[in-house]
Design a protein that fits this description.
Elements (H helix, E strand, L loop, with lengths): L25 H14 L7 E7 L5 E7 L2 E2 L4 E6 L3 H9 L1 E8 L4 E11 L2 H8 L4 H9 L9 H14 L12 E15 L7 E8 L2 E7 L2
Antiparallel strand pairs: 1-2, 1-5, 3-4, 4-7, 5-6, 6-7, 7-8, 8-9
Helix pairs in contact: 4-5
């Protein structure tokens, strides 16, 4: 398989992207592309690859789901004791890429991060399925566990704990992060690797739109 890797490539021809094609704001454009991915039948159209780093410059990535996009930024939820949250607490900087490979496009959001209020977290928490709520209580995210049976035991214990409760409260160690973008790039694949890259960049006087070389 290794010898086949150099020949693995696609020539992107499905669409183009210019300034005139963009929505007035970065968040409207991002929502439009998420919507297009969903309409095209792509699974997890709101999935983004989140990159974080620590003070020792060790970088990690993982896929999370964006749960809100508006003029403030992009919101996701996670365990505050996880590796990603520890790294965010150290640097307050992230990059997140939405990879819609089937549509030959992607969007990347770069910016600073802050915790959502407990009120905002509680509002989203109420929309989560009960199983997801139980999982958030049960999982000591990013810690080493003995085996799968240990995780199953934790879930069984939490399930029993809340068995008599109609509503499960959000754990104190779980909540939302808000990415406040400084740069948002929209990338559309083009033939001959001459891709279209349009970037919204925040300045002291507001947002500007600029084209980047591929």
């Amino acid at each position: 398989m290794t010898t086949e890797l150099p020949a693995m490539r696609e020539d992107y021809r499905s669409a183009t992207l210019d300034a005139a094609d963009l929505a007035p704001t970065w968040h409207e454009q991002l929502l439009a592309w998420i919507g297009a991915a969903r309409e095209a039948g792509l699974p997890d159209a709101n999935a983004m690859v989140l990159a974080t780093g620590d003070e020792e410059h060790r970088l990690t990535t993982r896929t999370v789901l964006a749960k809100d996009v508006d003029g403030r930024g992009v919101t996701f939820f996670t365990n505050y004791t996880s590796e990603k949250s520890h790294q965010i607490d150290q640097t307050r900087q992230v990059s997140a890429t939405f990879p819609w490979i089937a549509l030959q496009r992607q969007a990347t959001v770069i910016g600073t991060v802050e915790r959502l209020s407990r009120e905002d977290t509680a509002a989203y928490w109420r929309t989560r399925p009960r199983g997801s709520q139980l999982g958030a209580w049960a999982s000591p995210q990013s810690t080493v566990v003995r085996d799968r049976a240990a995780l199953d035991d934790l879930l069984a214990s939490v399930t029993e704990r809340f068995s008599g409760d109609d509503e499960i409260p959000p754990p104190p160690h779980w909540g939302g992060w808000l990415i406040r973008p400084t740069h948002v790039e929209f990338w559309q694949g083009r033939t001959h690797r001459m891709h279209d890259r349009m970037r919204f960049r925040r300045t002291d006087r507001g947002w500007v739109v600029e084209r980047l070389a591929p």
